[in-house]
Amino acid sequence: xxxEGNPDTIAADGQAMNIDRHEFYQKAVQYPASDIDIFxxxxxxxxxxxxxxxxxxxxxxxxxxxxxVSGDRARRAIAxxxxxxxxxxxxxxxxxxxxxxxxxxxxxxQADVLEGEGPPADIICAMNxxxxxxxxxxxxxxxxxxxxxxxxDGGLFILEMFGGTEAIVAGIEDREKEGFTYRWETEWFDPIxxxxxxxxxxxxxxxxxxxxxxxxxxxxxxxxEVTDLLRDAGFGSWRIFWExxxxxxxxxxxxxxxxxxxxxxxxxxxxxxxx
Length: 275
Prior knowledge:
Elements: E1 2-3, E2 8-10, H1 21-29, H2 32-47, E3 53-57, H3 63-70, E4 76-81, H4 84-95, H5 100-103, E5 106-110, E6 121-126, H6 137-150, E7 151-163, E8 171-177, E9 180-190, E10 195-203, E11 209-219, H7 223-232, E12 237-245, E13 251-258, E14 267-274
Parallel strand pairs: 3-4, 3-6, 4-5, 6-7
Antiparallel strand pairs: 1-11, 2-11, 7-14, 8-9, 9-10, 10-11, 12-13, 12-14
């Protein structure tokens, strides 16, 4: 579950009073250009042509869809999310400012991804670890099955996933961004259910902050669990692309295909499945 909540703004007249949490979420955790580079690379290697239609599940503000469509006038996008307020924000702040041509090639759908809404797409993606909100095997299999039925012939299903030894430890990690600090907090982790309560917050140079601007109740799935369910849903094969890290253990944004790795404190992968 993702909670909209009431952000706890500290400092009555500070910078945090004037921020838009959706805007800062995008600045803190979304890298649509990098995602699109991966999409194009793996699709072209797989099929020898460029994809034209993507479906962005759990799309939030539809930033990825907007950047995708803006890159080529032949492209289209379907953006699906259950929260109408967030879709409305994305329409007003991302899609419409990109121009009427871009807006006309993006279909926004307010729906539960478990229902399998939307037309076929060359690529269906679930980014930013969003499928972790599906906390039971039944729900995740239902989603994967719906995605399998909507992937076009010669299409791909792409998931972004994270893990590592620090993913199951309660604590706070701060990362410096341009003009603010992004805070990721794991409030608790339950090893019996592999569920966690996590939060995103933003801190500013004047000492003000927006604590727990977004809160998540997540199931931390393992890679074997996910790939087993992909098989059960009808996907015939998949590939794992592992993010490289630097000497300090920080992600570089570069990915390589792999079939086996040593565990790390934190890791991020793309799972690319095909029928």
